[in-house]
Amino acid sequence: MTSKSARSERVPAERLPVARVCVDVPLPHLDRPFDYLVSSDDDAVAQPGVRVKVRFAGQLVTGFLLERAESSPHGGKLAYLDRVVSPEQVLDPEVARLARAVADRYAGNLCDVLRLAVPPRHARVEAQGKNGTEPGEGELSPADGDTTAEPAGDAAEAAPGDAAVEAPSEPGAGPGDQPASVLPPGKGLPAAGGWDSYVAGAAFLRALEEGRDARAVWGALPGEDWAVRIAEAAAAAVRAGLGAVIVVADARDLDRVDRALGAVLGEGLHVALNAALGPAERYRRFLAASRHRVPVVAGTRAAMFAPVAKLGLVVIWDDGDDLHAEPRSPYPHAREVLLTRARLAGCAALVAGHARTGEGQLLLETGWAKEISASRDVLRNRVPAIAPTGDDPQLARDPGAATARLPSLAWEAARQALKAGAPVLVQVPRRGYLPSVACAECRTPARCPHCSGPLSLAGARDVPTCRWCGRASADYACPACGGRRLRASVTGARRTAEELGRAFPDTPVRTSGRDEILDTVPGTASVVVATPGAEPVAAGGYGAVLLLDTWALLTRSDLRAAEETMRRWLSASALARPAKQGGKVVVVADGSLATVQALIRWDPGWFAARELSERRELGFPPAARMASLTGLPEAVAELLAAAKLPDTAEVLGPVPADDDQERMLVRTSRSQAGALAAALHEAAGVRSARRAALPVRIEVDPGTLF
């Protein structure tokens, strides 16, 4: 067999083109492109964005061809590309620039980001539309060495509804083709009572239609069909001949957006990306976007890197949801990736949700984005009646409201709603039956005698079981007093549903949680007990929404506990009917708390400004930039010793972490964020060049700090 270098020996090496390749070797000190010669046989297919195989340190590794050059600054002899895996240009130049910026921001490696951005290859799926043949589902080309392994980030999500697939196109369509950006006359125009209900809402759509880089933070009204509003914004961008990328937190939200895009845009103009689709179908839809056959791409977290021609709009819904944070290195957040993408592409951006995060408030205060919100008159017509159970007037009427799990105010609101034939939503923070129990005599928390893990009850007739090791403790005895009876410390959703079923014996009671999530419920008398994020939509809205066990959310030892509580309360309360239609929300909490006050007034902007002001005083994100270093003490100390941190950097810690590890925090001003990330990445490169055996996990702006 003739070698590639022999086949190209007739052409002097100095006259051959050069390919700059990002090799899939996740070592920080090798995080740079490497130059390879392109043989005359590969010259036509070795284009930027294709997958290639190269020899690196004696091994055959995969990589992406980033760009072509006439020559290389490398003084030594260059190796040839081993082969081009596929002529499919799956890595857009715009996405490649974005990936480099994301890697730099999060002190990570480019190859790790590209692994998040481009799904694994399916050779036969690539052939679809190229030669007119239909590929076998999930078949691969073994010679390419590709894997069908699905990225783990969104694998637990349920598959969305029927999504639009790629529109028919001529064989050989490639990334240079223009998106199908022309809508039929009158198609995709905003409905009355939609965006025009918001101050600056109509102006935002006009800016999108004119192709301007409008950037906004949108606070959706309660009862809003937010998926349709987002689809209308995407349609405005399409009318301007531009594309849009829409990112939501989970498959339930994606299903809503998918249906809304199909109704507003029509068929063939969008794809919905979700890891739960399966490797072959997901790759087929990715190719529809990569070949620029659709102008709009919606999806869960991984869609933040979706290729779109002439990007005009990026949208993220509910950016405070922790599902937007990528759990794989370099741990980017979808909001930050999309905002970086908007800056690099010069396109419009929309950060949307019922609640507002500190990061969203910072965008407004710095002037980077403008606010889209409803006037108070419109808001009063849309919000439900919201009342706490812990204020003085209520305690005077019901002295037991301070300690009761379901005070009389909440009970009466549920009874009236059911009497009127409306459904009732009950939000509880914990799933299961009794996730935490204690001794009935001395109130000592019940712990597993084997591993000291917390005991729980899965049902009324079940024995206590450890939540850590899974061992049953049928003969449990309290080590403090010897008592054998247990009582509930925390009540879960299933136990709550059981209690409400006895209270309302003639009313159907449903549960919605991680094990079984309901999408919708009929607008008839029923009780729905749901954990946060699993609340189904009721036809016509809920007559009453009860927010129970609020202490479990408010007392969490987390910097974002209050912000997360506000987000979960607003998301559930937004499902209630307006007050004029009898809708009520009862929050079992003290009415003097800032979170409760913001909920009563439906003022997430005031609450976000308050939170940001407090974090600015304390030097916490997003007012400052922080990096977390986790590993064994000697490894963390070695990395800090090698890091040339900015002068303003402040090292905090150590604090204990899991598995005998420790955690150090490095804090600096936002103006020094780039310098901090560069210093940490350079220090990681020094350690990898020295072949340090002990790893250190580097997270910039981690989701949890303590």
Automatic annotation (TrEMBL):
Pfam families, per the entry: PriA_3primeBD
Any note on cofactor binding? Answer: Binds 2 zinc ions per subunit.
Q: Which cofactor does it need?
A: Zn(2+)
Low complexity bias: where?
A: 143-168
Which residues does the annotated region (Disordered) include? 126-187
Q: Which residues form the Primosomal protein N' 3' DNA-binding domain?
A: 20-119
Instruction: Tell me the InterPro entries matching this sequence.
Output: P-loop_NTPase, PriA, PriA_3primeBD, PriA_3primeBD_sf
Gene3D superfamilies recorded: P-loop containing nucleotide triphosphate hydrolases (3.40.50.300), PriA, 3(prime) DNA-binding domain (3.40.1440.60)
Q: Does the keyword Zinc apply?
A: yes
Keyword set includes Glycoprotein: no
- Which of this chain's residues are annotated to bind Zn(2+) 2? C448, C451, C466, C469
| Keywords, in A-Z order | ATP-binding, DNA replication, DNA-binding, Metal-binding, Nucleotide-binding, Primosome, Zinc
The residues that hold Zn(2+) 1 are: C439, C442, C478, C481
The protein's superkingdom reads Bacteria
Name the family the entry cites.
Belongs to the helicase family. PriA subfamily.
Under the subunit heading, UniProt states: Component of the replication restart primosome.
Functional summary from the UniProt entry: Initiates the restart of stalled replication forks, which reloads the replicative helicase on sites other than the origin of replication. Recognizes and binds to abandoned replication forks and remodels them to uncover a helicase loading site. Promotes assembly of the primosome at these replication forks.
Any idea what this protein is called? Probable replication restart protein PriA
Gene name? priA
